[in-house]
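# step 3/5: fold
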Amino acid sequence: MRGAGRLWTWFRRLPVVARLVLAVALTMSMVLAGAAGLVYWRVQTALDQQLDDDLTTYRHSLDQAVRAGTPLPPGPSGSLHQVLDERGRVLGSSDAVRHRRLLTAAELSAAARGRTVRHDVGPLLPITSGTLRLQARRVTTAGQARIVVAAVRRGHRDEALRELLGQLALASGLTLIAASYVGYRTARAALRPVERYRRGAATFADGAQDLRLDVPADRDDEITRLGHTLNHMLDQLAAASAREHQFIADASHELRTPLTLMRAELDVALHRPRTTDELTETLRSVDTEVGRLVTLANTLLDLEQLASGEHIQRAPVELARFLDDASAPYRGAAERDGRAFEVECDQETTVEVDPRWLEPAVGTLLDNALRHGTGAIRLRAVAHGGRLRLSVSDEGPGFPPDFLAHAFDRFTRAESSRTTSGTGLGLALAAAVAASHDGTARAGNTSPGAVVALDIAC
């Protein structure tokens, strides 16, 4: 068992091509050995049957001659005979075996008890002279028992079998060599794309960003599917790298302004002694910028989490209750501003969404309508055909026409909204939530006002 374990460990350490060729060679060896064994057995059986038939016929003729007391008849070419008494003394024999005992003591005893003895003299290999096949049987004549031994030479039979063995060995060897060569070439050809993919992946690991593997489009096998999988992985890695660079660029760009303002406020406060009121005002300003930083950082992290493929955990949600919960903080603000607030939806509808993400997206749209719009705010929801359409509209001036094409880009704000607080990430977050729900976001103008709609799968 320990030796087999070491052999298996050695085999597993071999290159894949070597393992495949070795496996093919071993399998073909067993198949060829089985086929050669079957052919040899069939030929040997046919030759032995013919030899046994001739030997049995000759022995019967010898038995009849001994019983009748007539001279022993000649047998087929290469045949021999001996007639023995029960003690093993030779009473008559062919000249070639006159002084040679063809039966052992045990075989002589068995024949004397009435058994038919069959025996081969000499091996098939190595080549020797005087190989025989014999049969011996007891014959009773004139009240006396005689042992009649009939034998034929096996030279032609053995020569035919040795020739067959040589031919089978030669044919099997050539077939094994050809099969191993074909297996080697096939394995190399099959694994050549894998080696090409490996070199491509190594190039990507060395810093190449736009690398894609050359995968044939006219086939669909395991290697081709591996290539498509690797290309998909490379796409994901490239997208992750792009998101990382985008996140770093966005964070460095947007965090610079509040940090600079905070540093300026603190420098002014430390430049000369300040009164309590002045310090309080400075701390309030710093607190405002800190709050902006926290909001900005949280929003950036939310966007990154959504873009990185965060799994949406859908759950059955009562649409009316969900909209009431999402709009509750903004309904009171609208009433304080004297603005109407309407929510329209089917009271009996249940949808499959992730409220953890969809609720802040709806809140962002309502907050934008409160801060940048005027007049009534309407939140509508319609579920149909496995899709949920959420829209928030107001009666304000609407979006500037040149802003609509970039409404959902990060840090994009209309000129009219730059005087109000905000990070320019609200609509980008809403669009990311819609995309994570297999949906889209759309912004447009109505008459009067603006509308932003999310169309998602539910």
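# step 4/5: annotate
The longest strand covers residues 132-141.
# step 5/5: archive (pending)
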